[in-house]
Amino acid sequence: MTRRFWHAGPAVLAGLALVVIFLVAALAPVIAPHDPYDQDILGRNLLPPTFLEGGRRAFVLGTDALGRDLLSRLIHGARTSLLVGVVAVAVSGTLGVGLGLVSGYYGGRIDRLLMRLAEVQLSFPFILLAIAVIAVLGAGLRNIILVLGVTGWVTYARIVRGTVLPIKTLDFVSAARALGAPDRRIIFRHILPNVMGSVAVLGTFSFAQVILAEAGLSFLGLGVQPPAPTWGGTLADGRLYLATAWWLTVFPGLAIMVTVLAINVLGDWLRDALDPRSDGRGA
């Protein structure tokens, strides 16, 4: 698979872009040129980027209405978006895969109960469910991770269940059961490895969706609260200055777009690489 990856041009570019983004987020305190919280309302508010007239070299992407360096806030905002994405996907993936394995393997009442619960959750629009939960728990980093993690389990559970149903009838599972292997061993030793390919692909696309969801909720004021730097929050701050300070929305929008695009391109390649009917070259 590694050799195939290096022959897939778009996937390589996407992978390199994600490596750079993760490194920037990890090294944010070191590489950020300014403190993302440092304000100067009277001296440098709404400065344009360096390449525009009136810009300063010290503020490459300009400043916001409070005089905070936009580049530094984008760099630190990457940490928030990636942290929410990684932890929320880990929570929803662990919960969804576990419930999907149980539902698909045992069937019966457990299967019906879990699938009805999934259908009930799917009947609520995500944004309304998120608003309701955050209204009860309050906004903040921990709560936004909890909301995105818990509400994302349904997709994992349904896909894993659908994959387990035919697998549990195959000969190697029947042989393990006939040899007296306990259910736990059959599920985790024989069935789980056969569903991890689908889970890996789904987790990649879910990562991109969570980043978009976090940005959207922060834009609405329901995510990480100011003055903490987030991409969605920076977009929200700049929407009032579209006509006079376009850089406040364009640059965070580009950060979100590049990150999500890179994840989706890598997910497309991973889906093709794990598909036995594909040549594995990806997009």
Features:
0% strand, single chain, 283 residues, MetI-like fold
Mean pLDDT: 87
Amino-to-carboxy terminus distance: 14 Å
Per DSSP, the total helix count is 13
Taken in chain order, the helices and strands follow as HHHHHHHHHHHHH
What percentage of residues falls in helices of 4 or more residues? over 70%
CATH topology: MetI-like fold
The total strand number stands at 0
**Low-pLDDT segments:** none
The CATH architecture designation is Orthogonal Bundle
Beta-strand residue fraction: under 5%
Rg value:
22 Å
Number of domains: 1
Biggest sheet record: none
Protein model, in words:
The chain is an all-alpha fold. It has a single domain, classed as MetI-like fold (Orthogonal Bundle), CATH 1.10.3720. It is built from 13 helices and no strands. It starts with a helix and ends in a 10-residue tail after the last helix. The mean pLDDT is 87.
